[in-house]
Amino acid sequence: xxxxxxxxxxxxxxxxxxxxxxxxxxxxxxxxxxxxxxxxxxxxxxxxxxxxxxxxxxxxxxxxxxxxxxxxxxxxxxxxxxxxxxxxxxxxxxxxxxxxxxxxxxxxxxxxxxxxxxxxxxxxxxxxxxxxxxxxxxxxxxxxxxxxxxxxxxxxxxxxxxxxxxxxxxxxxxxxxxxxxxxxxxxxxxxxxxxxxxxxxxxxxxxxxxxxxxxxxxxxxxxxxxxxxxxxxxxxxxxxxxxxxxxxxxxxxxxxxxxxxxxxxxxxxxxxxxxxxxxxxxxxxxxxxxxxxxxxxxxxxxxxxxxxxxxxxxxxxxxxxxxxxxxxxxxxxxxxxxxxxxxxxxxxxxxxxxxxxxxxxxxxxxxxxxxxxxxxxxxxxxxxxxxxxxxxxxxxxxxxxxxxxxxxxxxxxxxxxxxxxxxxxxxxxxxxxxxxxxxxxxxxxxxxxxxxxxxxxxxxxxxxxxxxxxxxxxxxxxxxxxxxxxxxxxxxxxxxxxxxxxxxxxxxxxxxxxxxxxxxxxxxxxxxxxxxxxxxxxxxxxxxxxxxxxxxxxxxxxxxxxxxxxxxxxxxxxxxxxxxxxxxxxxxxxxxxxxxxxxxxxxxxxxxxxxxxxxxxxxxxxxxxxxxxxxxxxxxxxxxxxxxxxx
Length: 647
Prior knowledge:
Layout: H1 7-14, E1 45-52, E2 55-56, E3 62-69, E4 76-77, E5 80-86, H2 93-101, E6 108-115, E7 127-128, E8 133-140, H3 142-145, E9 152-163, E10 166-178, E11 185-193, H4 197-206, E12 213-216, H5 224-233, E13 235-238, H6 246-252, H7 256-267, E14 279-282, H8 287-295, E15 300-303, E16 317-322, E17 325-330, H9 334-342, H10 350-363, E18 371-373, H11 388-395, E19 399-401, H12 404-408, E20 413-417, H13 430-447, H14 454-465, H15 476-494, E21 497-499, E22 505-507, E23 511-520, E24 526-534, E25 539-541, E26 546-549, E27 554-563, E28 567-576, E29 582-593, H16 595-627
Parallel strand pairs: 2-10, 11-12, 11-18, 11-19, 12-13, 14-15, 15-17, 16-20, 22-29
Antiparallel strand pairs: 1-3, 3-8, 4-7, 5-6, 5-9, 9-10, 16-17, 21-23, 23-27, 24-26, 24-28, 25-27, 28-29
Helix pairs in contact: 1-2, 6-8, 6-13, 7-14, 9-10, 10-11, 13-14, 13-15, 14-15
């Protein structure tokens, strides 16, 4: 059952009736249609399933479809649905707000009624059983509604469930009667498409009407054919990647992330979306924000009125001066922008409410001053497809769609001097922005190890921009959580290359190789220089090998070293990119140098070899002496060639 908005809420809403943006105010809440249940909990409930058209012309009918439900444990008998309309037109935005909040203060007449019957087979007529549901359809012509011919105006509508005791519950709506001219209303509708790819697709579809202007983050639209179609059918402006919060960046004085966002959007989107003029989202009007946008090439600003931004100007564009620079800033109509963004998203009566407000703006306008409508990032989109509210607004007979560029360049403008500083309480803290900027530098250095650096650099940079998205400015809790998640994910990325912790290495010779194992958790191969540094002159490192570690794999590298003197030496092993930047934190490795042991073993081996050589010489000499010795006197020499005795 639709909640009843009490009279106090109605009074509060009257302050929102102005047609243009006003001075600084808190971020707005969603606009919802009021309802006024007449009895306690357990009454039948009403849900609209169809309503329209938004603009009623001669020969057409106002049709209403609704579902009536009985949530109680008792049957409901004698229920009817009545379609009522105000006796006379509603002439101001404030009066329309008042009617929607409390229709009982307006005189209405009944134009159509229908009996509520259960959709269950076999149910008794005009009885809604416990937990039962019934569908109702009503229609009323301009004549039965009592709309005078040759006139135009906005009327309030009540759809009410009644029984023998009176009104059970009711819901309010609006309809615009058009049988006479309504003052022309030049209108530029600007939709901001940024954030996730899914969100961008939703906004692009919702604003698919060719008369709508799109301010789009080019890198979030990945379909080349879709990008070309948009470029040929719509007025387009570009946004920096992730549409960052310019005010937080301006107050931080660190431009690293903004430079990345602007360059990324200009060079890495689809070819048909490159080189788009940049339309800067302005969350706060102050000198640092305006100067930052102007100095970085923004063609204009777009005041984020649905996010809470305000300016002291009622013209559709304000030339804002700051630090010697001037930036034209589009000033959306607050009421129309909020209605499009948040009024009963996806409900069938939402377009009629928006169109009725546009009619009231037109009736009080001069016919030439344009109006800007921009739902911003607050736009609540419930499904993928063209927005019926956008279509109804741009198709209204008195609405003349115009381009945002024509408003920027037009003559209807105001002059505003930006205050020195504003909005700091809602900033992402400067130290957090600086920390993210340092991480971006580290990601850039890591990306230099890949054959295609952009495969690492671009996703990492965009991840760091996420907590700076302008739509998070109004939600500190969500921004804090997004910041922490971004930092953690990028920290994990930066730790993708690392040197494995190893056990102590023994070097028992004057020279040898130290084995080092390297890990790569990246999705691409990484080419690095392995740099070992010795903390002692007793160990000398001879080479810094350049190796390629396979994606998601390990590699063992042998680093040549030599020992000068026995000692326990602590070394560090780090990985560097081709520019000499460290991309993996140094890992300590202890090398036990025992060079003297090696020398002693060599001496012992040499002495032993020498002794063996001497022993061989002595034996050879002894054998030589035996073969030349003289026989004793009187003995005859033996004939050696004749062979010896067996004995």
